[in-house]
Each structure stands twice: as C-alpha cells, then as structure tokens.
Amino acid sequence: MLAKIFSASVLGVDGFLVEVEVDVSPALPSFELVGLPNAAVREAKERVRAAIRNSAGQLPRGRITVNLAPADLRKEGSGFDLPIALGLLVADEQLAPEALADSIFVGELSLDGSVRPIPGILPMAIAAKQQGFERIYVPYANAQEALLVPGLQVVAVPHLEQLCQALRGEITLPLPPPQPAPPEKQDAYALDFSDIRGQRLAKRALEIAAAGNHNVLMVGPPGSGKTLLARQLPTILPSMTQSEALEVTKIYSVSGLLQGRGGLISERPFCAPHHSISYAGLIGGGRVPKPGQVSLAHNGVLFLDELPEFPRRVLEQLRQPLEDGIVHIARAQANITYPARFMLVAAMNPCPCGFNNQDSHEECTCSETEIRRYLARLSGPLLDRIDLQINVPRLEYEDMVGEKDGESSAVIRQRVEAARQRQLQRFQGSGITCNAAMNTRALRSSLQLHPDGEKLMQMAFSRLRLSARAYERILKVARTIADLAGSEQVQAPHVAEALSYRAYDRQGLG
Amino acid sequence: MHGVTETAYWLAISQWPGIGSRRAWRLKEKLGTGTAVWQADGDTLQEILGLRAEAVTKILDMRQRQDPATMLERIEQRGAWVLSFADEAYPARLLQLFDPPVVLLGWGPPLVGHERHLAVVGARRMTSYGRRVTNELIGGLAGSDVVIISGLALGIDGQAHRAALDNGLVTWAVLGSGFGHLYPRQHRELALQIVENGGTLLSEYTPDTHPEAHHFPARNRIIAALADAILVVEADHKSGSLITVDHGLDLGRDIWAVPGNVTSRFSRGTNNLLRHGATLIASSEDILAEWSWGRGTVNAEEEAPNFAGAAQLVYEAIDYQNTSLEAIVDASGLTTAEVLASLMELELGGWIEATAAQSYRRTPVKT
Fold first, then answer.
1. B341 to chain A: which residues are within 8 Å by CB?
2. Deepest in the core among A239, A251, A422, B215, taking most CB within 10 A?
3. Does the ipTM exceed 0.90?
C-alpha cells in the first residue's frame, strides 16, 4: 500500500514542502530511499527501523521504497525521520491516513523512538502556513520556534510512541512548553554607554553610525577600549521591527542556534568572529551550506577586531554583502542566497606595535615600511565602504576617573530613532532606508548643503590632503549629523564635524 | 677634439675603472686639467696612479670608446646639470674633503649659497618621537634662510625633507644612486616634490647608476661637507648617520644631537654623541641661539585671535602643549559634536594643529 506524508525542508533561509511517499510491496525485504537524499537523510533508514521496533510497533515486511518529492531538490538533514516512520506505519495500516491529513511532520528520531530537535523549524512553519496547512508536528524542543507563526496549530512531539497513540486518539499530547519570559535587558547587555568613561569622540561617532547605519573603523592601540565600545553599540541601535526580528530568528533557526534561546530574537545580534575564521565561517557555505557570521549578524553588528589580521581573501568577500546586503553562495549542488545586511564595525592598531601617532609615553618602533605594509592589507574598495574612521587613543588615568557620567544608552537611542525616522520619511518609496545606503543621486537630492559648508569642504580638501573617494562619504556622514540635529539643511558645523572622522585618510597613507 | 669642456673630460674620467675620487684628485694635481689627463699616455697614467699594466690597459680601452661631449650632453638633456671639481661653480665646501667627488650632478636649480646649511640625519627606523621632534625642530626654522640637507632615506631623512617642504624651506637631497634609479622607491614622490619646490637632488653618480651599499656611506661625506651643522635626531650605536658625524668632525662642522629616552635603543647613538660633547638641541630656539638668530621665537602672550561662539571657547581650552580632546570637552563645557566641529574649523584656519590621535595644540604664532 502507498502512503503520503507531508514534511518540509530548508533551502537557504526559506522552507519548502517535501512529500514523503512510502510504498510497501510484497517482495524480498529491502529498504530503498530515493529523491536526492544526502548522507544524513540516507541514514534515516537505520534510525527509523530501530525507532519503530523499539517503540511504536513493527516494521512492515516486504520491499520498502521511500521517495522524497520534489525529486530534483537536494534534501538535507535528519528532519525526515519522523515522516518516514509515520509513512511506514500508514503503509502497513498500523495508522489511519485520515489522522495525518492537513499536517506537516518534521523531526529526527533517536533509536529508542524519542524525537530530537532539528534546525530550520521556523522557516518550515512559515512555509507550512503559506501552503495552507493547519497543523505542524515538531520536536518538543523546537515548539517555541514554530509558535512564532500565527494561525498555525503547533503540536510538540516528545516521542514516536506517544505520537502514534495521539494519532489513534488514545491520548492527547502535552501542550508545548510556554514561552520563556524575554530575558531582562540588563542580562542581554551587561553594560550601558554611560558606563564607558571618556572616549567621547568614539561614543559620538558610534551614535552617528547607529543613526545613519554607517560602517565604522576604529584605530587605536591595544587596550584602548575598542572592543568594549563596539560591544555597547547594539544598546543604542534602533529596536528591530517585527519583520526584522523574524528575519533574524529565521537565520538562527536554520543555523540550529535557537534551541534553548526561546522564541523570537528581539535584540540585534552582535557577532565578533576571531581573525582566524575561515572563508566559509565568515561568509557562509560549506559542504552542507550554512549561514556564515555575516548572516548571523544580519540586522545587527559584525565586529571584526584586528582587521588587518584577517586573510585578505576573506575580507574581499565582504564587499558583496556590504554592497547588496546578501551573500550568494554558488555551489555545484545549489545556489543559495542568505541575507547579510549588517553594520560593520572594525578595529585595528595604528601600526604593528600599536603606538604610532599616539600622545603617550610609549614610542612606536615600527619602520615606515612596516606601517605602510600593515595598512596596505586593507584594500581601497573595502575602505570605500567604511564611512567613519576614528582614532581611539588609550586614555590617561585622569580621563577615566574624573568624569561625570555620560548619557545613557536609552537617551542616545531616542535620538538615533528620531534620526532614522527622518531618513525613512525622506527616502520614502525609493527603496533606500538609511543615509549609508544613499547612492550618488540620492545624496545629491537629499543633501541641501549650505554654501558655507560647501566652502568648508573645498578648504578641507586642499588642507587635509583628503582623497577624492572620501568626498561622498564625508557628505553622507554630514547628512546623518544634520539628521541627528533635526536640521533639513546640512550646515557648515555638520560638515566640519564629519571631517573629524577621517582618521585613516589622515594617517597620510589612505 | 673641439668644444669639449673640462667638465665633460672629468665626467668621462670619473667613469674609468679603478678611478675613485682620490686617484682622480691625484691626476688633477699632477696633470692640471682634464684635457691633459685625457691626452696622457699609458705610462704617465701608470706612474701617477700606481696601477698595474693590465688596469691601465683597461682604462685606455675605455677611453677609446668614450665620447665625453656626448656623455655630458645626454645627461644635460635629461634636465640635470654637471659640475666637476675643476669648475668655478663647484661648491668650495666639497673641496675641503680629501676625496671630493670628481663630478657633482644636480637635478633642480643650481646650488646657491644660503645663510645656513643644516644637515638633518638619523636612523631609517624612526620612532614617533623622532618624527615629532624632526617636524618641530624644522618647523621652528620656517621663514629663515636655511637649507635642510639630508639623504632621502627612509625614517628621519625623509621626514626632514618633508618637514622642510611643509615649512617652505629649501631642501637638498644627496643620493646614493643616479637620478634614474631613485631610492628608496617609497620616496620617489618625495624626490619629485623636492625638485618642484625649488630644492635640488644631488649625486656624484651618473643617472643610470644603481644604488649600491657602499654608495651610502660615501654620499654621507657630501652631506657633511655641504652643511654648517649636522643635527642627529635619532640613531642607534651603529647607525649610518654616525658616519656623517665622523666626516663632519674631520671637516670641523658643528655636531648637534637630540637627546632621547635612555631606555630607547633608537637614541643610544645620539645620547652617546652628547656624552662626547655634541651640542644638545631640544628645540628650534636652541638652533636659533646657536646661530645667534633672534627671530622666529614663539610669543605666547601675543594677542589671541577672536572667534565666534563655540570656536572661541574651544580655542581657549587648547594649550601650546598637547591638549587631549577629553580635556577640551571638559574645559569648554560644550558637547562633543560642537567641539569636533569647532576643532576642524580652527584646524582648517591654521590656528591649531592635530599632533596625535585626539590631541591638539595651538599653532605657534609666526612673526
């Protein structure tokens, strides 16, 4: 007899439906699995066989054929264990097919029949809802994710045996565990902007970065607090909209990083990969493609400490996500696109020893050639996409203790949100959402540069020896500063301030 | 041969194998003119030079092939000038050397005397201290009639040239290679800027000569000879700039040194010079005092300029010493944004300068 069970899988960050067809025919016993399964799917045979024997009933005798349709898409992961097992039981008439109608089943089986969590539940649930299914059966530990999709009935399955009993109407399954309370704010970000003493330039620059979604490069000696500053950045970023949060949660769901974190991710992610990270780790990919750090930082912050230490080949790959907000991974087996719209925050030393251009007691001992070589590891095209470059000097003791408390993150965040609002209104209907994303035309039409500002720009270019490519970036930053000040026109002081965030260019080597 | 100048002959002679500055000088002393040397027979040459017969044969072979007039013309076509030690215009100071360069090639305006000639030399590995001191010392000489002489090398040399250019001073660079092979590569741009700004590149080598290790100690004698005083900014024990100092001592030039941190190995050489009696130079005023020049001193009590609003508060918060951004924000009572905007305005106006990361000071008022 033939059984059809609906299941789902994930390609990129989107779910798609898979029909699991199981046929049992009287012939010599065998078990065939077709429909482009990968190794993990092929091994389902063994898990299903043992799980059925150890819990629900008997494995049907005869020639078993399982087909995963559509047959031309590659199937990955262990989520088909549960539907295959159910298919076998239906085909063997141990379960009635009607009980399984209008439902989607996903889950990995252990040999004793309990159901284990799998990655990608959220996109699968979204796909189920879109395709008009009423119910989704998910592993008990994944229920939180599936519950994020409104209007879909979620059944949390702890064990194959209990599921069979429930489908026969003998018992009711326990309700999914309740949503854990969202973590306290203090837990998510132990520190606040007001906790950072001194470093006013850096704090101000990060506020501007948050307001215009500009990328930032911090140049400073070791121990000056670059990492600390970067980690505080999410506390002043505008809160995520519902759809942004869902995008992020989907990516974390696909990566299998949601378990134990509860449901929706509502805080902007902060990713800080080490510079020894591999190409696939940062960008995504691998034999079984997974989102990389750039995608895990989607709608959040990607912090690259010691930027010049990253392999150049890896850094060059950042250009596509920085430009388009996506990464496209082309493999022989599949073309996958992951979202990757993040704010890049990078930190580096001013030279290999870290003391170049510092007003400190320690002296830089690097030769010019060494410094030049160090700075040259960053390519122009990458630097082109970083609007704000700031110096973060090491602070004197007095600067760190004798200071009145600065503004709290909440106050700064209010200003940031207001500035973002102005941008959204200005760019309405143009597809641009923030100043950093402006192209030349959008910049020209939205700039409204005061003649004094124009004059200042001209003077700055000749006196500070700025490069031509710095021009647009300075104006973009000036636009954001004006937005923060609530001014429609970009005034001379806005331009003057924007000019102070060109640390790298002014090393004279940019 | 008609129309062949002494300069051309000496240029050709300088290329002979086995003829260095010393042998060439001996030829001049014995035979008087380049023409005479050119026409001398092998025996005469052998006797004067004290070379073996094969060596003299090689010289004669080369002389056969040489065409002095064309040689000179080719160099002049490339925009350079050539002086031999027999020429009137040849810098008299170089003749104080016991081995003056046979020919001196120049690219840029011909050398004219200035009131003072200061050689600024130091290590190729420069610390940020060295960079700052070089800038400040040379910056303090702005407006005076002084030439900054150095060797275009990385580190202090390059910084000295750059500081001279920034402050509108004439600067001469003495090379260890021909003009066609500017070395180090990173300073090609700088070399061009020197010429564009009225400075001169000098070399005793023809344009096609590649830089070689032994050229650099040799060009140091030219730097020492051309200078009134030799200022060593940073040097380790075995720095090449100490060779310049040795030549300077032979020639009776003033030796000046900048003291450094006793824990820094980049100042061991300079501190040692001071121990042995070099003049200590800690500011440009020291230089001016050495030369009895009373001009160009900084007068902090000069009436302060007046700015509008925020800029005035910020200007008042900044010292003639380095003032940190944090201190400026605290002292002015303005927001960071306002301070940054005013700082940029003041900097563009030339009233203050950024000395290091987030560190500013007032620009000394120039008379």
1. 492-494, 496-497, 500
2. A251
3. no
